[in-house]
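Following up on my earlier message about magnesium ion. Here are the inputs again, as you asked, copied directly from the submission form:
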Amino acid sequence: MLLEVEHINVYYGAIHAIKDVSFSVNEGEIVTLIGANGAGKSTTLDTIAGLLRSKTGDIRFNGQSVAHMPAHKVVAEGLALVPEGRRVFAQMTVEENLEMGAFTQAASTVEPNLKRVYEQFPRLEERKNQTAGTLSGGEQQMLAMGRALMSQPKLLMLDEPSMGLAPILVEQIFDIIRQLHEAGTTILLVEQNAQMALSVADRAYVLETGRVTLSGTGSELARSDEVRKAYLGG
Amino acid sequence: MEFLSYLISGISLGSVYAIIALGYTMVYGIAKMLNFAHGDVIMVGGYMSFVAMSALHLPGWVSVLAGMAVCTVLGIVIEALAYRPLRSAPSLAVLITAIGVSYLLQNSAQLIWGANPISYPPVVSGTLHLFGGQLSISYVSLVTVAACILIMLALTAFTSKTKMGKAMRACSEDKGAAQLMGINVNRTISLTFAIGSALAAVAGVLLCSSYPTLMPTTGSMPGIKAFTAAVFGGIGSIPGAFLGGLLLGIIESMAKAYLSTQLSNSIVFAVLIIVLLVRPAGLMGKYVPEKV
Ligand SMILES: Nc1ncnc2c1ncn2[C@@H]1O[C@H](COP(=O)(O)OP(=O)(O)OP(=O)(O)O)[C@@H](O)[C@H]1O
Ligand SMILES: [Mg+2]
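Thanks, got it. Here's what our run produced:
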């Protein structure tokens, strides 16, 4: 197992946001966490990335505990998070953003990885000297994903990559997710767009107010009545 | 000729303000806090170089390096002990702590060196006479202006070309996202304090060489003026601090020469108020600071 999340409990002050959540991701899989607003999806990913801390349990990546590792060290282990809302460095250029993604990597890897990201996202190469703040929402999402890929992650975590994008761009982002998966990247995907997420996922977990309430393969959940009622509009 | 001489002394004074303001602005940009103890680091730099020259009999340039080394360490220690524990505290708590650190440094200096001004041996001496003696420029002024331009160019290159410099900009935009890139935010903030404090030491030596007295409160007024300059230019902006410092020095020098020596400080601050009314973000600022 590449990632094992075991019995984590996360609090914001008195708010108990994640309640005894456990799940796992195997090498080569796409696993998705779906759930309504405020279910705790972002909190879960931020905790895995080291930005938040769980009071209990453990998070193991490649067999090693990362539960107490500071966020800046987690990346170097091969775990990259594309955060909700993209959070590109708006005043830095596209290429500088990508370079920051490679912060933990040896200098010699930057050029080949830049080349690979530009092949994946030709739009970014056209705009490489533009500041990231001037990009469109879709381009910023591509930049945030490209930036994460610069660290050559073993596990790529995506927090609502389709948020706020036009349908055609959502298609494009999901195509890229499929391509990354085919190229061997393991992906943990958080989405409100349950339909799209379940269509690409090998396995899925449903989060409700901080708890895992359902799990199964992507197609099982897509067919389940509960999921259809709650997340797929009937 | 008289005007030219006032202009040159204004540029020289402004260069000192600019060097201090660069430290203020870099720290603000990344830590989002006003380090009111920054001015007192100037004073520590002055005393340290004084000790190096007069007690240890080291040459001037070595004394500058000694002052920079001590202030670098001091800046790192202040940040780690006083500010880091308050990283997520309300900005008012941080501000009060900074004022506390400022008094701590002043009182410590008073304890060690006494409250009386001492006379500072200039690191650079001599005067350049031009136009048959009609215009005199001290070498300190020339060195000050040159140092300021050099520092400004070096900082610009550092923040735009180097990996750590870019990491610093990333941290100042979004610390969470910077951490996700693998950037150690605490270490980056520490580095910023180190650079700012080393610059303060340089400013201290240059200031004391131009106005050769030194006492525990020597850094206060230049510190406040440099803070004004940083706000004037747009706090958080490196070229803004440079421009703000220079303009402030020139305005102060002209006000002293043509209006009133007593009122020169009031005039400087009045200009600041007017600029901020017209351009709240300062001359080159992109946004209005939320935390003051
Ligand atoms: N910084 C915070 N302080 C206090 N409570 C928070 C904070 N961030 C999130 N919460 C609360 O924790 C719970 C989980 O939030 P989280 O952002 O993880 O949900 P989410 O599933 O990602 O939702 P969305 O789909 O809207 O992004 C919510 O009840 C939210 O109000
Ligand atoms: Mg979320």
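One observation from looking it over: Chain B has one domain: 2-278. Hope that helps, and feel free to reply on this thread.
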